[in-house]
Fold this sequence. Notes:
Elements: H1 2-17, H2 27-45, H3 49-75, H4 77-83, E1 88-92, E2 95-96, H5 98-104, H6 108-117, E3 126-131, E4 137-141
Antiparallel strand pairs: 1-2, 1-3, 3-4
Helix pairs in contact: 1-2, 1-3, 2-3, 3-4
Amino acid sequence: MLASAALAWVVLLVRVVGLRSFSKMTSFDFVMTIAMGSMVASASQSQEWPKFLQTIAAMAALFVVQFAAARLRRASETAARVIQNEPVVLVRDGVILDKALKETRVSRDDLFAKLREANVSSLDDVRAVVLETTGDVSVLHGESMDKRLLHGVQSAHDGEGA
């Protein structure tokens, strides 16, 4: 019963705040998703109404904080830099940027695994590999690449300077 009520509460909160709440576009969003799962589990295990109500109030507060952070990110460049990580180029035009790998603690083995997942058969075909703000890895490969795709990416335009 309480598990169903907790899930219904989350659905209502998402309907009010919007689907972006679980978008995983930033590390903040990712943490929100993990925390919400933990809170739903906690609410569903509650044996007493006060604990259940406290948990659903915490859920609502988390949505409010995320909503406020998203607004703040949009309103202030400085706030955006503080709140979210900046994506980093790991490979540029077939060249592995060892300094970027070291700074982001990504191993070559992990990088190669992501390249294989993206069906890359030659590093020469890779235009860019980006470690995104969420920890996901984007692989851009093919004949050419629109430079606008790297807007806002750390060291997107300089060589080994990552």
